[in-house]
Amino acid sequence: MTRLRSLSLAALPLAFALACSRTPEPKPEERAPAAPAAPAESSAKPASSDPHPGASPHAAMGSSGGSGSAAAAPDVAWDAPGAWTSMPNPSPMRKATYKVPRVAGDDADAELTVSSAGGGVQPNVDRWAKQFGGATPKTTPRTVNNLKITIVELKGTFSSGMPGMGGGAPKDKQMLLGAIVDAGETLHFFKMIGPEKTVSASRKDFDALVSSLRAK
């Protein structure tokens, strides 16, 4: 019995040494929970609320007085007589302004203006007639280079009623010689006003201008 106890006591240091020299097994690695995968970016763009994507919101609007029509009336060109003097336009509404030289005995030059507007031919003829106190206009239809033209003649006392257009004061012994070019939605006005003798003497030059009218 004493011998067995001695052997047991002798074996204790060895067992202790073996236990100390043994490397402890590592604990299982605690892995952090995986981050949720980011949703894949869709290559498709979100649908636009614009029913016409890529189109300008004003693309369908026309340029003719906000009418909404995209079709523009053709413009016109002409040849001005050499005796006339081109003058500055007093407003953006004017396309051209010409001074027509007076004849002997008249106290003022005549003036021919070029402008454009909408409306029908007859309402504009009536408006011109009102500027001559409601005088009856003489109208003559013409066709020049496929353009429909109405020639208008008026005589009498002229009153524009607008400052800058003849001064607004009535003037007697005046004459209007005009041409209205009907280009569809747009009308082009060639309107000469001045002393009757000067305008009558300029008829040949006026007729030459009308004959030169053409679509541009």
Largest sheet: 7 strands, antiparallel
User: Which radius of gyration do the C-alpha atoms yield?
Assistant: 48 Å
- How is the largest sheet built, in terms of strand order? 2-3-4-8-7-6-5
Q: Architecture of the domain at 76-215, according to CATH?
A: 3-Layer(aba) Sandwich
Q: Name the CATH superfamily classification of the domain at 76-215.
A: Mog1/PsbP, alpha/beta/alpha sandwich
**How do the helices and strands follow one another from N- to C-terminus?**
HEEEEHEEEEHHE
CATH topology of the domain at 76-215: Protein Transport Mog1p, Chain A
Helical content, roughly? 10-25%
Briefly, what CATH class of the domain at 76-215? Alpha Beta
The 3D shape can be described as globular
What percent of residues are in strands? 25-35%
Report the total helices: 4
Class per helix and strand makeup: alpha+beta
Q: Segments where pLDDT lies below 50 for 5+ residues? A: 1-73
Mean pLDDT: 75
Number of strands: 9
Give the termini separation.
Answer: 136 Å
Descriptive tags:
single chain, 216 residues, alpha+beta, Protein Transport Mog1p, Chain A, seven-stranded antiparallel β-sheet, disordered N terminus
